[in-house]
Design brief:
It is a single chain. By secondary structure, this protein is mainly alpha-helical. The protein has one domain: Hypothetical protein af1432, CATH 1.10.3210. The longest helix has 21 residues. It starts with a helix and ends with a helix. The mean pLDDT is 97.
Length: 182
């Protein structure tokens, strides 16, 4: 499966710009982590771009992401990608036993949160600092649907200090800022 095919599939199932931008953000960070860890960048990008592709059609647990996984299986996507995507939802009880799965989980909620912080700033993500993200994390009323627990747990499972992880994600998203509307 190619990256272009994955993007086409995501666009087929996802019409909303906000959700598309979220998947592009996760893709950008997945690419950056693949480079950091010496992993296959295209596989990691595909995983990021497809992790929520089924959400508009199947928004309820466990349909998301289990229905998406069935679609991916029928289209020939490898088990490693499908398991990582299933594992990004705790309620699926699929162990995050690969680096790919751990990185996807660690990036998903944090990308959404950083996007929420950046969008309200005058310079968007260009001058966003770790301290600004951490300050907003303490504000339970801000982006209240983003799980702070998942952000913490993701960094812990990845074995990266939270500040370092936040900084890495910010920098990766800066590289895709125009595409993300940030």
């Amino acid at each position: 499966m190619t990256y272009q095919e994955a993007v086409a599939l995501m666009h087929e199932y996802t019409q909303g710009d906000a959700l598309r931008r979220h998947m592009y953000a996760v893709e950008a960070v997945m690419r950056a982590y693949a480079r950091r860890y010496g992993e296959d960048e295209e596989t990691w990008a595909i995983t990021g771009i497809l992790h929520d592709f089924d959400y508009e059609k199947f928004p309820n647990a466990p349909d998301h992401p289990s229905e998406g996984s069935k679609i991916l299986e029928k289209r020939g996507y490898p088990e490693g990608i499908r398991r990582a995507i299933l594992g990004h939802a705790d309620y699926m009880n699929v162990p995050r036993d690969t680096l790919l799965a751990k990185v996807l989980y660690a990036c998903d909620e944090l990308c959404g949160f950083i996007s929420a912080v950046a969008v309200i700033r005058p310079n968007k993500i260009r001058d966003l600092e770790i301290s600004s993200v951490k300050k907003k994390l303490k504000d339970k009323g801000f982006a209240k649907n983003v799980s702070r627990e998942d952000i913490q747990k993701g960094a812990q499972e990845l074995g990266v200090p939270l500040d370092e992880h936040i900084g890495f994600v910010i920098e990766a998203m800066k590289g895709a800022a125009e595409r993300l509307g940030l």
